[in-house]
Sequence to fold (315 residues):
Amino acid sequence: MQRRLFLLFIFFIPFTAFSQGCSDAGFCTMGAMKPDQSYNKKIQFRLNTMEFSFYRGTTTLTPIVYVATADLNFSLNRKNTFQVKIPFQHVEGALATTSSLSDISLCFTHNLISNDRFDLNFSVGGKAPTNQSDFMSTDGNALPMYYQTSLGTYDLIAGISVINRKWLFATGIQIPLNRNHNQFDWHRWNSTDPEELAYVQRYPNSTDLKRGTDIMFRVERNLRLNRFNFSLGLLPIYRIVADQYTNFLGERSSFDAKGNEAKGLAMSWIATTGYSFNVRSGIRLLIGHKITQRAFSPDGLTRELVSSITYIYRF
Fold:
């Protein structure tokens, strides 16, 4: 067993040092939409689970995002579970370093159908902000969304999934309910450094941002062995309603200076591998890479490459 664990880590270390994946606003890891869901018909009851993960994501600019998350899943009975996600986020970039508790997620999942061939699950939940996305730099400039540890909005989330031993299919929707209080506009950036002024213009303006509605679809192929589990999948996320922000003229807009609208497709491939130490504990490694990215993303959700490591405990 020790030799197999050693080989597992050797295989993933080259990826986890530089990797990343899901670039959504959080709902692709909630309830029925989660990747690499367990599927074991030998166990006739549901266990509570605690998952502790560490995530690293690089962006299209200099910020690197680190997130430590406690993901708690409580089995209410054989059909119903309740999930709470509590993340702490740290961002390092050329303009600033920020850290704080990130948005809290709550999700209720109900098993609609369970038989020898597949499970059909439905989830409903939401996200609550922990701040108003209004962090400032040390010299008093409003920071772009890339550096914010919260999206600053209350979101409604719902989704459904079909899972069997080999496949997972899931779809979901996320609807933000309000604007945040971010005030970043590079026209108002105060600096005497011409290089800094040129660099800050690469960040999309996001004053009083109202994020649009997202829909997602996950397709995942699993290989389940005795103790090991592998998966490979695609995660398209489509922003069907464009983001809106207040531009430097004081007008509400969904377009950047080049005419790109803040909506469209972002798609990633996601790979995971897991190892169960026993029926109660295990470990999972995830990597992902962005295939397509929206041209204009004022919300700062522009992860190109992500990686995470998760310890799972069932009780």
Notes: Residues 232 and 271 are 4 Å apart (CA to CA).
